[in-house]
Write a structure and sequence with these properties.
By secondary structure, the chain is an alpha/beta fold. It contains 17 helices and 18 strands. The strands form four sheets. An eleven-stranded mixed β-sheet has the order 3-4-6-8-7-11-12-15-16-17-18, with helices on both faces.
Length: about 550
């Protein structure tokens, strides 16, 4: 036997050993050192995921209804392989969220990155989940496709919800700290964490886009106008719905009513505040609502005068009192179908289609009597095939027209890219319900950005078909182009003109639909959604 023959088994064994070692090295968990300590995450495909990183101390005990306090450093390597628990919540909005939880120790965030190379300077997208600022969590939002296809770093966050996150009460408000919008303060602390730490994950702390859907859109809107968030991000995405904010006197009255109902009396004394902080979390949730019904003490956003401008967000934007930056702002074609779906979801068993009585109840409870009469005249049941479609039309238009007006106001001051998502084939994560037609419902577009998104544990995930996947790819390209440069146009994205209406010149919206996205004028959008009518309805 020659020498090469003798060495062949040894070489083979050595090659196998090296291959095994190489495979083990390739699968070793990614590790990053933050300002608070080292974290070890997961490799999923070509993306490194770091889940459940604490950015604040648990807001419990004396820290309940206080501005959040940054997390303390830890020794050793912290395992960041599981999402943090959802924040305390009770109302699940049908299949959107849940299950209910009384957990207050929940201020964590997640990072999805295609690289861990410090100094890579990838664009950063910070995502605020929706849920009416009273439910939901970051755990259901898989940022891996945005990170991988868009070559961006994606951060998703948990923040205090419901009465824990949005409560104005005279006793708490008299303590001298920022108050009312505690959930917004959480988001701002998370943005400071990003500014301090994201470079270690390959992100550029000077190129951060803040975005969110539904309540996340409202919170992004609020952070754009909040003086306390100035300089923490450079672009913004409003995905479905904007809001003005509850005036502080009204919010404090609601908060005082909650405090009395909780057994803590009324007034601005330290004793009232101490009583509130001693309440069991479950007692607070009892007053927040039930799984199917929101209680009477909920405020989504409060114009407190320090975190959110006292005159409300719409006035701040009209007056230019906000951090000027490029903004992407849009809606889905059938926003209110989501609320109609919740009504049908909770109508059983057995479930039944939305009724004419439910439509009439929606109008009469949502608007003052004189306005309700006008709404019935503008959206008579006789014009619609089912009461569900009448409910959807009236409700949707009341939501999307203020956002069109805001976009027109903003476009005179900053670059704005407007859109309407209109894929009526979008998979529906609610169970099949009698006679219900989903259309392009509120939340339908989330799954095109975050794969297999399905609301809460009772929601049903669905894979996108080939055409829908193409739309998903285009939207991901547009979002991450916008995060990179402030302009959604570029490789893989649809042609998206800036929304720049002027006298005699219409503004252009991107109409996101199958088989291919097109553009439409703001006047077309306004006519379809009865915006001239809603402009005459008192706010």
């Amino acid at each position: 036997m020659n020498r090469s023959s003798c060495l062949r088994p040894v070489a083979g064994a050595l090659f196998a050993l090296l291959a095994t070692a190489g495979a083990a090295f390739a699968q070793s968990p990614p590790e990053v050192t933050t300002a608070d300590g080292a974290v070890a995450g997961l490799r999923v495909g070509g993306v490194s995921e770091f889940r459940g990183i604490p950015y604040a101390l648990p807001p419990v005990g004396e820290l309940r209804w206080q501005p959040p306090v940054a997390a303390k450093p830890w020794a050793g390597v912290r395992q960041a392989t599981a999402f943090g628990p959802a924040c305390a919540q009770i109302t699940t909005l049908g299949a959107f969220a849940g299950p209910p939880t009384a957990n207050e120790d929940c201020l964590t965030l997640n990072v999805f990155t295609p690289t861990q190379k410090a100094g890579a300077k990838l664009p950063v997208l910070v995502w605020i989940h929706g849920g009416g600022n009273m439910d939901g969590s970051s755990a259901g939002y898989d940022g891996s496709r945005l990170a991988a296809r868009g070559h961006a770093v994606v951060v998703s966050i948990n923040y205090r919800l419901g009465l824990f996150g949005f409560l104005a009460d005279p006793a708490l408000d008299a303590e001298g700290h920022p108050f009312g919008n505690y959930g917004l303060l959480d988001q701002q602390l998370a943005l400071r964490w990003v500014k301090q730490n994201i470079a270690a994950f390959g992100g550029d702390p000077a190129n951060v886009t803040l975005g969110g859907q539904s309540a996340g859109s409202i919170d992004t809107e609020a952070n754009v106008a909040s003086p306390l968030a100035a300089g923490l991000f450079q672009r913004a995405i409003f995905e479905s719905v904007v809001l003005d904010g509850t005036p502080l006197p009204a919010a404090e009255k609601t908060g005082a009513d909650f405090t009395k109902a909780a057994g803590c009396g009324r007034g601005a004394s330290p004793a009232v505040a101490a009583c509130l902080r001693q309440l069991p979390a479950n007692r607070i949730l009892q007053l927040e609502g039930t799984e199917s019904t929101q209680g009477p003490y909920i405020d989504i956003l409060i114009a407190d005068g320090r975190i959110v401008p006292a005159g409300g967000l719409f006035a701040a934007f009209r007056n230019g009192d906000f951090t000027h930056m490029p903004i992407m702002s849009g809606t889905v074609h059938d926003e209110y179908n989501f609320l109609a779906a919740i009504a049908e979801y909770f109508s059983g068993p057995p479930r039944h289609p939305v009724t004419a009585a439910q439509y009439r109840n929606f109008v009469t409870t949502s608007f003052p009597p004189a306005t309700a009469k006008r709404v019935f005249a503008e959206y008579p049941l006789a014009l619609y095939r089912t009461p569900q479609l009448a409910w959807n039309a009236a409700g949707t238009d009341s939501l999307v027209c203020p956002q069109l007006a805001l976009n027109r106001s903003l476009a005179a001051q900053v670059p704005v890219y407007g859109y309407e998502f209109d894929d009526t084939t979008a998979p529906f994560f609610f169970p099949r319900m009698p006679g219900f037609v989903p259309l392009a419902y509120h939340t339908a577009d989330i799954q095109y950005l975050f794969p297999l998104w399905h609301g809460g544990p009772k929601g049903q995930p669905h894979a996108l078909n080939a055409q829908q996947q193409q739309l998903s790819n285009a939207l991901i390209a547009a979002w991450t182009n916008f995060a990179r440069t402030g302009n959604p146009n570029g490789l893989g994205a649809p042609n998206w003109p800036a929304f720049t209406p002027a006298p005699g010149k219409p503004g252009l919206y991107l109409d996101e639909k199958l088989p291919a996205s097109t553009t439409m004028t703001d006047s077309t959008f306004a006519a379809e959604h009865h915006c001239e009518f809603w402009a005459g309805v008192p706010g």
